[in-house]
Design a protein that fits this description.
InterPro entries: BlaI_family, WH-like_DNA-bd_sf, WH_DNA-bd_sf. The protein is mainly α. The chain has two domains: 62 residues, Orthogonal Bundle (Arc Repressor Mutant, subunit A); 55 residues, no CATH class. The protein has a three-stranded antiparallel β-sheet with strand order 1-3-2.
Length: 131
């Protein structure tokens, strides 16, 4: 993932990952308490994310609905790798178990996250590459 979602985009993505396909109004109604956004701000964030191909868009009975087009595990993996490798300069395997209590990740998703974070790092280090 070349670019990572910002805080606003992550707020919207988490709604899609939890609920699935929704209209912009449904997203707005579910995040406005947390964000304080106006409806037009919610639409701007959704449109920007659709332009980045992070959300899909389709019409259902005259209503436009959106859904996440990027995997939460891939996004979390990218964020974790950037923080630990680029910000904190930590090398080696990362303890993915620290995310075990997250309500956003199932056991299978934790295994996938571990594979994305640590397996790719091990493969690169065996070839002498840096992330």
């Amino acid at each position: 993932m070349s670019q990572q979602p910002n805080k606003s985009e992550l707020t919207v993505l988490k709604r899609f990952w939890t609920v699935g396909e929704q209209s912009a109004r449904e997203v707005h109604d579910s995040v406005t308490g947390e964000t304080g956004w106006s409806y037009s701000t919610t639409r701007t964030v959704i449109n920007r994310m659709t332009d980045k191909s992070w959300l899909t868009r389709r019409d259902v009975h005259g209503i436009t609905v959106f859904d996440a087009a990027i995997s939460k595990v891939e996004v979390f993996s990218s964020l974790v790798k950037d923080l630990t490798r680029k910000v904190m300069d930590i090398e080696g395997d990362l303890p993915v178990s620290m995310f075990a209590k997250s309500p956003h990740l199932s056991s299978d998703e934790l295994d996938e996250l571990d594979g994305l974070i640590n397996a790719s790092e091990n493969t690169q280090s065996e070839r002498g590459e840096k992330s």
